[in-house]
Amino acid sequence: MPQRPYAPGSVTSGVHLPESPLALYYHIPFCQIRCTYCAFNTYTRLESLIPGYAEALIRETRLVAGSARRPAVTIYFGGGTPSLIPPRLIAPLLDACAEVFDLAPDVEITLEANPGTTDRAYLQELRAIGVNRLSVGMQSAHARELHLFARGHGVDEVRETVTLARAAGFENISLDLIYGVPQQTLDMWQTSLETALDIGPDHLSMYSLGLEDGTPMQRWVERGHLPAPDSDLAADMYEWADERLARAGFEQYEISNWARPGLACRHNLHYWRSLPYLGLGAGAHGYAGGKRTVTVLHPAHYIERIQQQPAPLPYPASAATDTIEPIDARQAMVETMMMGLRLVQEGVALSTFRAWFGRDLWEVYGAELDRLIAFGLVELPTADQVRLTPRGRLLGNHVFAEFIQE
Amino acid sequence: MNQSNIRNFSIIAHIDHGKSTLADRLLQLTGTISEREMQEQVLDSMELERERGVTIKASAVRMEYTAHDGQTYEMNLIDTPGHVDFSYEVSRALQACEGAILVVDSTQGIEAQTLANLYVALEQDLEILAVVNKIDLPAARPDDIAQEIEDLLGLDAADVIQVSAKTGIHVEQVLEAVVQHIPPPKGDLDAPPRALIFDSHYDPYKGVIAYVRVAEGVFKPNTTLRLMASGAVLEPIELGIFSPNMKPVQSLAAGEVGYIATGLKTVRECRVGDTVTIAQSGAVEPLPGYKHAKPMVFAGFYPSDNDDYDDLRDALEKLQLNDAALVYEPETSQALNFGFRVGFLGLFHMDIVQERLEREYDLDILATAPSVEYQVVLRSGEVIEITSPADLPDPSTIDEIREPWMSIEIFAPEEFIGPIMELVTKKRGEYLSMEYLDQTRVLLKYKIPLAEMIIDFYDRLKSTTRGYASLDYHFDEYRTENLVRLDVLVNKLPVDALAMIVHEDEAFHKGQRLVSRLKRTIPRQLFEVPIQAAVGKHVISRANVKALRKDVLAKCYGGDITRKKKLLEKQKKGKKRLKMIGNVEVPQEAFMAVLRLDDDD
Q1: Is the pLDDT of residue A6 over 50?
Q2: Three-state SS for B277?
Q3: Domains of chain B by range and CATH?
Q4: pLDDT (0 to 100) of residue B38
Q5: Average confidence (pLDDT) over B329-350
Q6: Could you read off the pLDDT of A365-404 as tens digits, one per residue?
Q7: CB pairs A-B closer than 8 Å
């Protein structure tokens, strides 16, 4: 009998969900400017809602958590632009978290920051209230690209933010970069990555530009104002970066993420390992108690619904939950593969799959895996592990699609 | 009704010259339909006909008209299709008439089908009434066009009626002219009844509805009838007329036009062109019938989703009930699995059938590039006919291949002579003659292989002449040509559905174009895919679809799972529509690449 990775959990339609500690995600849907590639749930000129919104987050946290005092290991403020929230509004939220969750002593608390929105005092306060990981949206070292993205900052502000953050005591700083940009050359990409390395992050996320529906970037390409991203060139950029980062001492742990040893983002690992997380705030998605939740999108609606909620609802819902959907075994298996294979080193453990679903991975996906192995997209580095090959990392959609039901 | 008060007539015209609008006005003027019932193009009952503004099938309607002489006349209007593909339907409909109204657009003048239809009418000794239409338009030149009619067709310009079917101006004069100039039908009322079936449609309750023109005698309900050619004996469900909807009557007498609801379930038993008589002591001699329309163009029709094969077969069967010119037989293709080889009168007919299958039967059809019927003379002396390039036997067994050639007539403004010459020459056409119709318009005559015409000839003619040219065509002869089969290999496997028969001189050029077009249509796969064009064992062109290197969602965090999963599901669903050639996924558009070989890239 293989060892279950976690203590025996509740049974939901054939799924033995791991009794894992939680990850907490807080969505901050405010931005000063909308980036031209961004399709996330975010709003400009609603900053006046921030104080009420921060209060609603505290209230939702308490309502969802109830009195169970579940263990939690990470907290993540994503956006939007979380650095638009003053630390004095974040502090009481973290206090509430500590009160209603059993927070791990080494809890990872990340906040996404836009260069130029944070000064020395901000970063010092932020560190002081317990935020210990900073994710900085650098995106590019080229003024022209930053302008194309409507980022509203230059590369100097990135360097300055990181310097100030280091001075404030942040020891875990991540930079985001975008490649595969229309008109970007390999040379330009190399300059961006070298500049990032020179700034000295502990973690790097590198995203190939995707043209999301409804974004200006997508419209420009569609209308021919910009050339479509060249996927072959993006592959060259990816391979070059992977090799360069290895030389710089970074380990790739996910399709788009690299970290210094031991500094992989624990919060995000939670997603890829299909472990439970709560999604709090407008437009946040959660996956806990075998159910996927989506919260109402608009921050004003969110605040209103939370303010009017009199008492806790069945976990993990709040009054702001817009949809709640039980994830059955079949869906959970698909998601386990789709998310787990993104972890390029650890992949999916056969023993975990068996523990969760009571079936052998080969029994469920044998034909699919055989095909993928034959195409050289998936490999079995150990008897308990399936994962992507280096080629499979670039062709992930072909791999994930195999597990999708028609 | 006294025979002398019956008038049977058709309206013939080039497409878009206003035939159906004139018919609508006649129906309204005679009170056959009320203002309230009036909808544009009443006679075009198919949704598709109305949308495309063309008549596809003939239809017949009875009107009552009280003329200026105080007498009431029974006016049977037989509407005819305007497209050249359906000219055989025109000739059938005209056999049921004593006269025809020739409509010419006063802004356009005489066009190819004006003339073609007129010749058919004259062959059948019909009395012709010329009408120029659309005189309400600012660009109308009614007097000039009337003169053109006199010059070209030999009808007196003074007799040409100038109307606007749209506004109704002078339309009553048309009815008067029909009464005065079109002769009444003749036919012995006391002879054993005989009627010619000139069209039919299928009604789920009443079976095949035969459209008939009674030549002699009187048909009564409740009489057992016999079809003289098929031998079918039937108890008619009802006799009736179209006014314009089906309306039962107690008799159909010599000279009249109406319908017999036969109750028969298949059109095979009730062919257009057959003669109806009574079962007991009926007529001995059938009426002169029609030649069965011969399909000229063939294409493979495959369901996009293989599971729909049975539905496609049922749909074709039902369409054939109303479209006797449609023929089909089962066919299999390695790439496309099970489907049908379907024969059509022309490309327009093919287009209509495909659209009806998709619209009325909700089927998704993959049509292969159309082909013509080749005659292949084998070394053994045997002659076989093939309608699919895949059926061409081993070249070493072939003595010669013959292909159908057409005679075509093009009417166009003279400024387009150059471009038309160039187009026809490019399509292997041969110049015959050129006549000036007036100072600015010419009639060009050519001969051209049908195989070249069915690819994109008509569209190109329209675009090179900015829509000013009109075209008529008919079969000329089979000619022996130096033809070879151009095979296409995808990842080294020959693809039967992409093979085409081409002239040897053009094999290289066409092979290159086809390969470069397929290279752009076939998406990149996980491995490199060579595409080759070959004649026999000789590869004449090759290109590679490079292997796909990168296709991965850059971001997938907690909030993205549902959306990204849906995205992948959608992609996977789309992939289901792809056809497999070996292990290469090929989109359905690739099978139409042959049609666009001459497009500018």
Answers
A1: no
A2: strand
A3: 3-181 (3.40.50.300), 194-278 (2.40.30.10), 297-366 (3.30.70.870), 375-481 (3.30.70.240), 484-596 (3.30.70.2570)
A4: 65
A5: 91
A6: 999 999 999 999 999 999 999 999 999 999 999 999 999 9
A7: 100
Residues of B in contact with A396 (CB under 8 A): 551-553
Cβ of B550 and A292 within 8 Å?
A: no
Query: Considering only CB atoms, which chain B residues are within 8 Å of A283?
Result: 559
Q: How close A207 comes to chain B (CA, Å)?
A: 5
Contact between B295 and B343 under an 8 Å Cβ cutoff? The reply is yes
DSSP for A206-241, written as a single string? EEE----TT-HHHHHHHTTSSPPP-HHHHHHHHHHH
The residue to which tokens 């056969």 are assigned: A350
Which residue did the predictor score with more confidence, B577 or B527? B527
What residues in B contact A406, CB-CB < 8 Å?
A: 569, 572-573, 576
- Residue B278 to residue B228: CA distance in whole angstroms: 10
Partners of B339 in beta bridges: B331
Provide the CATH number for the domain formed by A22-272 in this structure: 3.20.20.70
Q: Tell me whether residues A238 and B558 touch, CB distance under 8 A.
A: no
Residue type, A116: G
Where do you find CATH 3.20.20.70 in chain A? Answer: 22-272
Check pLDDT > 50 for residue A152.
yes
Q: What phi and psi, each to the nearest 5 degrees, are found at residue B191?
A: -70, 165
Q: How would you classify the pairing of strands B493-494 and B483-490?
A: antiparallel
The residue-averaged pLDDT of A332-353 equals: 96
CA dihedral A189, A194, A196, A200 (to 10 degrees): 160
CA–CA distance, A256 with A396 (Å, rounded to integer): 11
**Chain A residues near residue B555 by CB distance under 8 angstroms:** 207, 210, 256
Query: Any idea how long chain B is?
Result: 601
From the list A207, A339, A395, the residue facing B555 with the nearest CB is A207
Closest CA of chain A from B534, distance in Å? 29
Q: Residue holding tokens 């018919």?
A: B23
CATH number corresponding to A330-404: 1.10.10.920
| Cα B133 → chain centroid | 24
**Beta-bridge partners for B162:** B132
Chain B touched by A401 (CB under 8 Å): yes
Smallest CA–CA distance from A79 into chain B, residue: B559
- At residue B517, what is the residue type? R
Residue A192, chain B, CB below 8 Å: the answer is no
Interchain CB distance below 8 Å, B572 and A404? yes
What phi and psi, each to the nearest 5 degrees, are found at residue B338?
-95, 135
Q: Where are the beta strands (DSSP E) in B126-172?
A: 127-133, 161-162
pTM to 2 decimal places: 0.73
- Phi and psi of B315, rounded to 5°? -65, -40
Cα B440 to Cα B13, B454, B467, distances in angstroms: 22, 29, 16
User: Is the pLDDT assigned to residue A7 strictly greater than 70?
Assistant: no
